[in-house]
Amino acid sequence: MSKPQQIVVTACNDLYLPLALGLLKSLREVSFSTPFDIGVIDVGLGDETKARIAAFGAIIVPAQLHFDYPGRAAWEEHNFAYRAMTSRPFLREHFTGYQTYLWIDADAWAQTPDAIDTMLAGAANSDALHIISEIDRDYTPYFLSSQPWNYHFKWYSANFPRESVAAIFPRPMLNSGVLTMHTSSPVWKAWGDTLAYCLQNKPVITRDQFMCDQLSLNMAVYTQGLPLKVMPAEYNWLSLYATPMWDAERKLFVRPTPPRSVISILHLTHEKKLREFDLDIVGGGTYTRTLLNQTT
Question: If you average pLDDT over residues 251-263, what whole number do you get?
Fold first, then answer.
């Protein structure tokens, strides 16, 4: 059998194993029309953890160092998993020889094949970044509060010059937790260069840089006019902004407001990722469960 031209990549350490196993299980149990390999960047896996991940047929590679920056050694000693963030613009160097690369955070998982099939097919014939924004009709914090905008402005301002922030703010934040690009996309280099610029201009790395890779991607795309395809929110549903409903008949997570389309990729973007939720059920009632992949 020939090698697939597509690869779906995530990163993991031992702490994220319960989440990553749900993702990997979904990548093997959902029926996708597009064949792909699975890649995992090791940002702190023990031997036992590696064995459990390898059982899914995943290609495990160590996180590489693509550029240096002030205070990196001390920061990575404190939080080596940060190298997952500095690795994302360089997936082509971690996993060579693929036509299309799809990144998905370890705290996300696929309910249906729609997102991955659509994004891989689209990126196979386009140089555009295929990604999902953080603006959606169900993300009520954006409409009822200024808090998300204030956070975004604070993050940008901590990492980029004032004039650069003014040039793009408040364009919708593109969430880098799920994205797809062809190997030839110009976004790769622009993203990597912008991220390196961001970190290399900081005398020390702090929590202010925890979103630096996503901010750098947004900055590169918006300031350089790079090719972009914004996909539906169902392709990277951000649970921090809207808790999904439960469709008991289909046993699927769906949008909380009509029309209640099925969520294809559910992203656990809240701090208590393993917590239980009292989910509203379509048709009435509640159902208490986590947002983890609980298929058997």
Answer: 97
